[in-house]
Structure formats: C-alpha cells, structure tokens
Amino acid sequence: MTEEISGTLKLKEMDNIKMSEPDYLDWTEFRGKNSSVIRKDEIDLVVNLHAKYFNHKVYYPCSCSPKTYNDWIKSLNEIYDNGVSR
C-alpha cells in the first residue's frame, strides 16, 4: 500500500522505521496510560515524535477535533510496532 499519510512518509515505508530507544520508552509509557483525555505533556510527545518520524515541522493541530491527533497516534503506533532501533 502506498497511501500518502501526514508528512512525506508513505505507509509502505513505515515498515522500515524503528523508534530510537528513548522515544520507544516514552511511547511505551504513553501507550500504557488508560485515559480518554490527553494531557499537555502527552500532546507535546505526540506532536514532536510525529514531526521527527514523518519529516515535518512541529505543528500543533487544533484541539477542537481529535481526528488529527488520533491519526498521528495510530501512525506512531505502527512505527512503535516495528520495534526499537539499536
């Protein structure tokens, strides 16, 4: 599948990307939270990791709709599932 996603990365290319160990540990902690509300520090994590792994400038989408954040979290989870870069 070569569907374009946020940034310049395509879904097919995400299979080759792994998170750095510090990012992986931060994302493990984020995923372990059991809350439907995202805190400011968690928004910062999502925004910064997405910018890093999807090659775009740091950008804070409007919080009035969770769609973009949910899409970004889903994309970061896919990279997370590839494991940690050693």
How would you describe this structure to a colleague?
It is built from three helices and no strands. With 86 residues, the chain is an all-alpha fold. The protein has one domain. Helix 2 packs across helix 3. The N terminus is likely disordered.
Tags for this entry?
86 residues; 45% helix; 3 helices; globular; disordered N terminus
Radius of gyration: 12 Å
Proportion in β-strands: under 5%
Q: Could you tell me the mean pLDDT?
A: 88
Q: How helix-rich are the residues, as a percent range?
A: 40-55%
Q: Give the biggest beta sheet.
A: none
> Helix/strand/pairing class, anyone?
mainly alpha
Order of helices and strands: HHH
DSSP, total strands: 0
- Low-confidence region ranges: 1-6
N/C terminus separation: 27 Å
What global shape is seen?
globular
Number of helices: 3
The number of domains: 1
Write the topology of this structure.
Elements: H1 21-31, H2 40-53, H3 67-80
Quick recap:
With 86 residues, the chain is mainly α.
